[in-house]
Amino acid sequence: MHIYEPPLEEIDFVLHAFLKISEQKITGYDLLTSDFTNPILSEAGKLAKEVIAPTNKDGDEVGCKLENGVVRTPESFKKAFKKMCEGGWTSLDIEEEYGGQNLPLVLSTAINEMFTSANMALCMYNGLTRGAYSAILLHGSEDQKKLYLPKMVTCEWTGTMNLTEPHCGTDLGLIRTKAVPNASGSFHITGQKIFISAGDHDLSENVIHLVLAKTPNALEGVKGISLFIVPKFIINEDMSLGERNNLSVGKLEHKMGIKGSATCVMNYDGAEGYLVGEENKGLRAMFTMMNEARLGVGLQGLAQAEIAYQGALAYAKDRTQGRAIEGSKAPDQAADPIIVHPDIRRNLMEQKSFIEGSRAFIAWTAVLLDKAKREKDLDSEGMASLLIPVIKGFITDKSFEYTINAQQVFGGHGYIEEWGMSQYARDARIAMIYEGTNGIQALDLVGRKLSSNGGKHIRNYLKLINDSLKEEKDKELSEKFIAPLKDAVDNLQKALMFFMEKGLKNPLSAISGATDFLHLLGLVSLGYIWSQKAKRAKELIDQTADKNEFLEAKILTGEYFMQRQLPETELRLKKILSGEKSIMSLAVSQF
Question: What is the DSSP string of 110-167?
């Protein structure tokens, strides 16, 4: 099995050469010089490689076990999780008021990528806590914040989000979980929730569940949903833990992947719960942190594609079979390494160009979210909201595809468990499903985000890209990057015109092309990112006469994306323009 290597040089290039984070006019970014970030990233990479990564196989092979009502995680998880917590890694971008370090999201995003590549399942426990923390921070009372947040920052208490029920997933208006008020001012919560990540475990002292439920006089549908804090153990006035609440794990799901993450059926039998915010406003409270949560899921996909690519690259350099078609590359051996063969190169280049483009795209969007939060910049918030479905949907779709392609490099060895490649594929698969399936992301993009604020955000994004196309003066970059990107943007604009002309008259026609549009916008976004990365790499090369293979590789990898992957926008456009007829032509009885 390949030993994970943190991509520190690539992360440094993204943060400091491409994004120039310390020069951004965002509060706190002036601290983010290389001298400040490099030791942090180096230490995070060391933790990921030496402490977290060795636990990944345990998560897959040992998994979680439900014993006497308590979920047990692998022993190695406890040690690694403790190291993460003690080092303050779970509180990087948390507000100082509650014990965090208040570092920008862009830095924690880079660190979380490394941790997630090392062990995605383990990172679920603090990841879900981060989401629950945000909901309480933004919508909880002052007393609730003081009571829960300091312990959640350190992960002494971890958190969950309880949305889904057996009969409803995306359509949360159908939930049946009830919240009945009692004399003390709290509520009795009764119902069942499923697919609850980190629903129970032995990594923390308490689990703070955030549960969606309906009060007796609730409004119909999603307008009648409220949000409640339901702790596993009741908290005494002196902050000690009291008796166990009336909740239990009904079942531990047996899953395709992320087996070290406890996915639970949670039963609430009159459990004591406390209203967060206003009654009937629970859905808004739960979804306030969705941008960061969905950015995190896109990051999970990227992280699995990265570790899978590393394994495939190492294997391709080591495995010998056949001879290079243009002549032997290793005459002293019986065969050449398989990396000499064009189809292996194609496979690896597709992975490399996608991964490096996506890493920069996610980091760039994290900067938008930082600007929105730290500077109250509504345009940045709007553009980030436009791009989040693309990051969650497009990147996780393609990341799963590329973990499979990495597995393919191994041939038969990729199909057996010894090399670990199947785990990366199985773990990556869930990212396409949770936090809103990718089909839902496409519908959100086309049905809501494109028209948001009168279409302002997609217009701003197109202007940003088109302005960059006009600015490029370098002839070589113009031919290899700008010309292909212009064609891709033209395809994007034709799709938008189709939606504008057909969508109002026949919404079904637009919605039928939603997934293809999600991918089209994703491809254009990576094309834009690569044009900017290549420009920056060329500037750095021109500043020195020394040969720099790393920077040269940036340009060549970008060229591959522009020539071999970006043209897919034309295919996606043709599918969009075909409308709904071929999709909806069969009667239900004909399937």
Answer: HHHHHHHHH-HHHHHHHHHHHHHHHHHHHHS-HHHHHHHHHHHHTTSEEEEEE--BTT
